[in-house]
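G., the chain you wanted modeled:
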Amino acid sequence: MVLIIGAGLTGLLTAYRLKQAGISFKILEARDRIGGRINTVLGAENTPVEMGATWFNEQHYNLIGLLEELEIGAFEQYMDDSVFYQREANSPAEKIQIPKQSPSYRIYGGTSNLINTLYQKLEQDEVLLNQAVTSIKFKDDKFQVIANQTFEADKVILAIPPKLWAKKIQFLPALPEDLTTIAKQTHTWMEDSIKVALSYDSPFWQEEKIPSTLFSNVGPITEFYDHCNYERSKFALCGFMHSSLKSLTEAERKAIVLNQLKQVFGPKVTSYISYEECIWSKEEFTFEASEELLYPHQNNGNPIFRNAFFDGKLLISSAESAKESPGYMDGAVYAGNITARKIIETL
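Predicted structure as tokens:
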């Protein structure tokens, strides 16, 4: 039996590969949902908006290969030839031309379409929710894993960010000190982000022939993009809010966001039909405080994560551990494929 800790993209893909090979497994997921940092939320009128992972590019061939394998389409992120740009506080946003950008892409049906497609390849009893792992003990060539229930396993895969397992899970015997130290100093992708999205009955920005893209050096919104679906039948704007605003209430954040957007896009921006936000630093199964400031992607892809522990039976696998594209969805796919291959080769 293989136990996979975490039902994000890496964990679900690893499980899918093991399923294809006929290897028994279970996934233990701390949340009450699958997907981890991938979370497509349906707002008013079922408008899909991304509160987590959203974009990828042509270099992300691991992810592209998986989408093709699962027959999931992708489409190019709409970008205007001109954008709104706010240089400094108290200065109005100006409309500027931008050079042709390398295209980014989104997944048809929302990023969670990938998660749900993988999940549907598994049996329901192979993915257990609300199972936050607190202890992993290795003795007599077997693992005992303590969550809301107790599980036994021959192999364990840590498919969650390194900082989480280093700080939230007790290991007996203890993991090597150098591994634990690096894990605690590994930046978790998305952990400081605030995503925000507003959905609309119609794309007023398109009707008024104004840019849908906003870049601001001061915020509260720092990046904002057209977020309509592929069919352009659902309409939204989505982007990032400055992480310093996490200390405010939702009502306070919404008020200053709408004030900024009204100044940029005009009064129609306030006629939204739903407002969604996600403060990832308040997600206990994503965020864990650091003792020191970590720079983005710090220690992502560190070679130490490629080692196996406890006689080769404990493997580390997440976007942050990946040798390729560490910290991105592409890295999560790379890690899932590599980890599954290691397990299949040994069994």
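Residues 324 and 331 are 6 Å apart (CA to CA).

Shout if anything looks off.
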